[in-house]
Amino acid sequence: MNRDRFFSASTAAINKQIIRLTVPNIVSNITVPLLGMVDLAMMGRLNSPVFIGAVALGTVIFNMLYLSLGFLRMGTTGFTAQASGAGNNHEISYTLYRALTIAMLIALSFIIFQKPIEWIAYQLLDGDKEVKLLALKYFRIRILAAPATLALYVLMGWFIGMQNTLIPMIISIAVNVLNIGFNILFVLGFHMQVEGVAWGTLLAQYGGVIIGLVFLLVKYRSVLIKPALQLILQKAPMRKFLSINTDILIRSILLLVALSFFTSKSAIFGNDVLAINAIFLQFFFFFSYFMDGFAYAGEAMAGNLFGAKQATGLQKLTWLLFGWGIAVSLVFSLVYLFFGHWLVGLLTDIESVSQQAYHYYFWMVFIPLSTFAAFIWDGIYVGVTAAKAMRNTMIIAVLGVFFPAYFLLTGVFDNHGIWLAFHLFMLARGISMTFFARKAIFRPMLVK
């Protein structure tokens, strides 16, 4: 791609589209942790810490249930974006219907088997009996929101696939506003304690679904085709949808295992180091909110170009997304470099933690630079539904790099070793996805 072509007027148009899709995504991402913060803030107004602990433990249960189900959003985005690029209204509609069908089946299975889930959670969770029993009260109410929660995954993914990130942003903000309102009503108004928070979250989730469906019917009525059950359950497309989402599920579980293992093993080096690593990981997650904004834009635009068979456009988009990734990661690294001590101070005033953090600051500074490529590639891979390659690169990064690096390095370099393993893991993801891209992304377009 020559310089003149790269900096042409169409490049400016693509950049404008990237930003148009990215900014609402970033706002939506930042609102995600607010749900949990609002719930905890309400419990913090009560007269005992057991209520905070109960909601925290209840939230852990739902994190375990939902974190691996991100494939419902990602798979829906990729298939929808490709169908949109191809101008195929049938597949645009039936991608939504299939995804909603699968989401409802999973949600109903959670509700039907809530007793076994509850028992397993009780055995696994730490905490005293009173806190755990309150957490289960929270669980028994909030589990009824599973259909709404998973339907929102699908709706958000579908809107992004249609290159509309404004609607997901509106839904995310609305859910948080509803959650705050219901919590104030139930907890402060009706004195319902843990049950009030659970009902507030449940009603906010269903409110979000209603808002999403209104947008769907008002804005996209002309695109949607009337559903037919036999077509929704048609074997070939359903098998393809499930196969790709299974690969994304495996990839998501492996990522979750690596991050959980990192946190768990940090405790070996003492409470102060555990606290430092947990704080630094928050800066990783904060950076991810921004980079996921670009990744979601990449999902929508790459899928659209893939569906329209625009190989040159997809190559150009890839270059531009990486340009944005480099720029944003450099800004974050500079902020972490010059304001790292102040940022850590926002999260803790424990002197021993702040002092020891000095020894590890450079690992925090390097986080954006070592991770941005994986985020950008994730978006492109999801958009073209190259799920098998996503799964394989994650297997390489987790099993071939992260775990061997951890066992080889931590015995010699202690906490520096676990951070080096983390960065090698993220670099391995970016490098392996770059290596696989020609075969997984660009070559299929040439033979389409």
Structure keywords:
disordered N terminus; 448 residues; mainly alpha; single chain
Could you walk me through the main structural features you see in this protein, from its secondary elements to its overall organization?
With 448 residues, this protein is mainly α. It has 18 helices and no strands. The protein is globular and about 60 Å long. The chain starts with a helix and ends with a helix.
Draw up the topology in text.
Layout: H1 3-6, H2 9-43, H3 49-66, H4 71-86, H5 89-112, H6 114-124, H7 129-142, H8 146-161, H9 166-189, H10 193-219, H11 229-232, H12 235-266, H13 271-307, H14 311-347, H15 351-357, H16 361-383, H17 387-413, H18 415-447
Nearest-integer average pLDDT: 86
Order of helices and strands: HHHHHHHHHHHHHHHHHH
- Per DSSP, the total helix count is 18
- Measured between the Cα atoms of the first and last residue, the distance is 22 Å
Task: Report helical residue fraction.
Answer: over 70%
Strand-residue proportion: under 5%
Return the domain count.
2
